[in-house]
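>> received
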Amino acid sequence: MPRTRTSARATEKDRELARRIGHRIREARHRSGLTQQQLAGERYTKAYVSALETGIARPSMVALNFLCERLGLPASHFIDEAHPTWTRLEVDMRLASGDWLAAVDGYRALLDDGPDDSLRAGLLRGMAEAMARLDRGKDAIAAASEAGRLYAAQGRDADAALARYWLAYGLYQADNEPDARSLLIALLEQVRAGLQVEPDFEMRLLTSLAAVESHTGQATRALSYLEEARGLAADLDDRRRAAFLFNLAVGYREIGDFEAAIRAGTQGMALYRAAGAVFESARIENDLALAYLATGQTDRARELARGARTHIEETGDARWLSLVIDTEAQIALAFGETEEALRLSGDAHRYAEASGNEPARLASILTEARALRRAGRADEAEARFGDAAGIARSSRVPQRLREVLREWADLRADAGDHRGAYELTSEALAVN
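>> returned
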């Protein structure tokens, strides 16, 4: 038994090292302006670089030395446990520039120096934001909770509100929507009662509330928050306005107003492109593809999805790549290309699992189930609908669960299993 426990710890340590090296390779590649294919050169493949950046694989020293030469950095930059000495200004600048992994390293190093409570609160709040940006919600919760407590003890209400905003963000990422919603509503009440925070803080709260409601299947409620925020978005810079329009487009699409979704998404994409925000522009492109698909404009949908995939592949973001590939699978299915839809949904599923993207994993399995049903492979479709329902039940998104159960019920009805279809339909009606 002791030998087994030691081996488990070593394996986890190896995985953490692979993740850290991967994050730093990706960070250095982005700063160098290289695509994954350009970094791979003629010696390696883009897929190998992607596996390194997502922590699926760890480079050999031969591979690492090759990559270091192309990136102009020593190997120690990628494998050292700590970065060089940080200053608070340097770390805050990393956070502001979107270099979130480096910001986490910097905040952690500064916290290790044992600062007083006033400085510690600020470092923890920065750490919470960086963790949330990296989709590490549980870590964000811990940092934001302590920061909020320290700020409150010092009577710094505005700073405490910002810390609690990132606490709500972390709770949302950890699938604790009820607590996230309660916290955001409480913060909104404070702001409307006169608490002075940042100029766009009220709009951020409304947008975050919309995200929570959308995630729980309350699309109409989500859109109402976004419409309320619309009047506050006029004075935003182009990049923040683009982000708002993206959220608005998603909200419209989820309630079925596809023309409004296309208008908002097109405006947001233009603003992102003008700002040179390739990754964010690709995310809107993918959402626009889904809106066009819903209106039957499949050629335009395919064009947008292909563009989104090209740009997302350049960033190496496996979480979003899984969603974009699933969009392509849905489009292939709309064209009647069943085998292509099955291939693409399988690829999307692999990327979703590798990146831990549960919503994308559910989407890919559901698309695969639909393709199997279309191909007449009823038994296989039955199994995949069952898998999708299992994930949907645990995800606590009522709208998504109802969608899966109803399609599964239709499959059973077509097969003559009317009792089974009735049971699934009854469960769907009971979901709330």
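>> Confidence is low (pLDDT under 50) at residues 1-10.
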